[in-house]
Amino acid sequence: MTLPALPLDGIRVIDFSRVLAGPLCSALLGDLGAEVIKIEPPTGDDYRAIGPFSGGESGLFHAMNRNKQSVVIDLKRDEGRALAQALCAQADVVVENFRPGVAERLGIGYAELSARHPALVYASVSGFGQTGPESHRPAYDIILQAMCGLMDVTGSPDGAPTLVGDSISDAVSGLFASWGVLAALLARERTGKGTHVDVAMFDATLGLTAGMVARYATSGVAPRRVGNRHASSAPFGAYRAKDGYFVVAVLNNRLFERFAHAISHPELIDDARFADDAMRSENEAALRACIESWAELHSVAEVNARLSDVGIPVAPIQNISEALESEQARERGLLIETRSADGGTLRLPRQPVHFSAWPGTRTTRAPGLGEHTQQVLEKYLDLDTERVAALRESGVLGHEHADAAGARSEMIRNANNA
């Protein structure tokens, strides 16, 4: 039986991005069937040298560059820029995450490419966007978490501002960029015209904190750190049991009554301090003491079973291993086993959206550095073997794939010894 085409089959993406936000954007497009051609410098994407490693390959690079082909082109050379421009002229989408102005200097900026190819959708992912007084600044996830208020509201009220435990600004920027590309492609179907999709990590991170932004926009007061509890509801947070912690979420009086009976404290229902959500939040410390006096007599598993049985939203606090190895994650296929370059297997994250029209999406390994240079140039630019060999000899295409693998191993050794 022939499987139906994935939703982005026939869409070609040229990906100049590196590290995380941009590569995640194009990986998500590749998951849905787009052909993604990753253009790398001769030294490769920096993420190739960032651990952890398996079989000499970076797990982070594999995750962010699944479903792609790798072409090495030195964009600092005139011939390299000409090759890149020619590939972009045949593409539907270009993704880059240089600092503003760099793509223009390399001859692959939106204005130059769209003048030749008006239907091109061009996505730029940068720290602060293409405009504004901060647009020139370099940015890493920690910079954006600090500047967007995320660190300030994370952590204990009497402790230091705290990083969220993963590169959340990078990830949400890649997600918003893929969303912007899809919207632009849909609009192009109606108008025939492409557009420039400008994604700032600063904007995306503030967009992620939708509740915090809404509270400030309404009250004019910046939210404060409240630790492992909700800023305006109770009981809604993390609580201590006999052998660890659990979380519970109670947002209305009906659930609170059920909760009070479940923890053997029905007197809480008629206590004026806990009459509604606002009062419970105001008196959260007293409510917490009562909850934990019950919970400390029970294990997390017992608490979870007791509250779940009566319909209270409750959960144990799991680590990432427990989450990904859970029966729920296995049923949803969140990690996929795929074949590695050496014939073994590796596990890669699967994009999380399920479609009834397609039995699955695509998840294949990331490419070796320059692995597809020759076949892409021959297929799309009609260059013959001799011309590709001459370009390689001149240094425009970097080293042979085997040499590049050795160079990558040297990068990894240097990174490990740094």
UniProtKB/TrEMBL annotation:
Pfam families in alphabetical order: CoA_transf_3
InterPro entries xref list: CoA-transferase_III_domain, CoA-Trfase_fam_III, CoA-Trfase_III_dom3_sf, CoA-Trfase_III_dom_1_sf
Keywords attached to this entry: Transferase
Example GO molecular function: CoA-transferase activity
Keyword field contains Signal: no
Keyword Transferase: yes
Name of the featured protein: CoA:oxalate CoA-transferase
